[in-house]
Write a structure and sequence with these properties.
Layout: H1 2-14, E1 21-24, H2 31-40, E2 44-47, H3 70-86
Parallel strand pairs: 1-2
Length: 90
Amino acid sequence: ATVLSEAKNEFLKQYPEGRFVVIIGPNSELAPRVKNVLNELDIEFLDCSNLLEKEKNEYKIHWTEGHPSANYHLEIADTLKQYLNANPKW
């Protein structure tokens, strides 16, 4: 919590007109706890914990590899774009 709070403060120092949003990754088992803490700290977040099943082969760079593929990152980026468009800062 302290690290994210400091990261937000540092980000806003460098980009005062910016928007600091934490993305909770797909299949995060910690999402409920993290959301409570982020709410307490007044840190904006996007919960992607139920967005996709990260273990599906289409979201891995190779079926034997656990690293996420371009499809995975595109899904998250598109979801973030939709979120930002639906929840403008100004």
